[in-house]
Amino acid sequence: MSAQAIRQAAIRLFGRQGYAATPLSAIAAAVGIKAPSLYAHFRSKEDLFRTVFDEAVSVELQELMAAVTPEASVSDGLHRYLRETVGRYEATTHLPFLLRSIYLPPPQLAAHIRERDKVFSAELARRVEQALRGQTAFLPLGMPPDEAALAFIGILRGIHAELLYAGPDAAQRLTQALWRVYARALRPDGR
Amino acid sequence: MSAQAIRQAAIRLFGRQGYAATPLSAIAAAVGIKAPSLYAHFRSKEDLFRTVFDEAVSVELQELMAAVTPEASVSDGLHRYLRETVGRYEATTHLPFLLRSIYLPPPQLAAHIRERDKVFSAELARRVEQALRGQTAFLPLGMPPDEAALAFIGILRGIHAELLYAGPDAAQRLTQALWRVYARALRPDGR
DNA sequence: AAAGGTGCCTAACGTCTGTTAGTCTTCCTT
DNA sequence: AAGGAAGACTAACAGACGTTAGGCACCTTT
Prior knowledge:
homodimer; mainly alpha; 8 helices; 74% helix; DNA-binding
C-alpha cells in the first residue's frame, strides 16, 4: 500500500538532491511516517535505491520503444524522442532521477547502475541505427549510418546535460537548434 | 607551502567522488596530515570547496581564451577547443572537478557555483558567436550565427556528458562524429 | 473468539564526520 | 638568545545518519 508511496518519494528526492544528500528520514517524512518504519518495506537504503532505479529504467525503456519504432520515419521517431525527453523531464520524476543516477552514480551503487544501464543503452543504439537505416529506403543519407547514429546519441547527451544544467526551457531551445543541425547534415545534398 | 598540496588533493578527490562523498580526512590523508590540521589553512570544508572551485573556473577560462581567439578560424578555434576539452579531461584534475560541480552541484554550494559559472558561460557564448561571425567574412554560413552558436554549445554539452558517462575514449569518438555533423550543417551548400 | 501477520511507533546504538580546544615543536625574526 | 607566529598533533564534542530491538494497534484468517 504505502510501499508505492515510498518508491515515489524516493525517486523524487533522490532525483532532486542525489542519493548521498537524501537521508531516509526525508523520504519517510514525505510519506508521513518515521525513518525506521521504512524497514518494514525495504531491507536497506541501497535496496530501496536499486528497486526504484530498476523501475525507472524499465519505464524509460518503454518510452523509448513507444517513440522509436521500426516503422516510424526519422523525424517521427528520433526527433519525437528528443522532444518528449525534454517534456518528460519536468512532467515525470523518473527521468531527472535516471539522468542524475546514470551520469554521476553514487560510488557504492555504480556497478549495479552500470549493469542495468547497459541494457538501455544497447537498446537505444540499436533502435537509432535501425531508424536511420530505414530512412535510406526512402532517401539516401548524407553520411554513413553508424556515424549518424553516434552523432544522434551525442546530441541526446547534449540535451541531457542541458536539462541537468539549465532545465527544460533552455533544453527545448537547444533541442530545436541541434535537430536543425542534425537534419541538415543528414541530407545527401545539404539541400 | 602545503596549502597548495591541499588544494590539489581536494580538486582531485572532489572531482572523483563528489563533495559529499569526500570526507576531510581523505583530503588530509592524501597530503599526509590529520583532518584537524586542515583548519590551519581553511576555515571550513565549504570554504575549501569555494577556493578550489574559483581556481578551477579561472584555469578553464584561460584555456578557453587561449583556444578560441577572435583571429582563429572556426575549425582552428571551436574544433580545437572541443578536442582539447577531451584531452584535458584525463590530463588535468580541474576539468573533471569542474564538470561534476557544475552539472550536479552540492545543494548548499549551488548558489556560489552558479554565480561563478555565469561568468564562464557568458564568455563562452560570446566567443563562440564571435568566431562564427568571423567565419562569414570568408564563407557565408548555412544557418543563422546565433542558432549555430547555440548548437555548438549543445555539442559541447554532449561531449561533457559523454566524458562523465563513458570517459575520454568514447568522448573522442563522439567528438569526431559530432564535429563532422556540425561542419556539414554549417556549409551554405551542404557540399 | 483466538491467533497471527502487517505496519507503524519510540528508544537506542554505533559509526562517521565536521569542527573546536589546547598543546607541542619548528623556524624565522628581532 | 628570546619571542612569536606557523603548522602540525591528540582529545573530544556534537550532530547526522543508517540500522536494530522491542512493543503496540489493527485487520484478516481460522
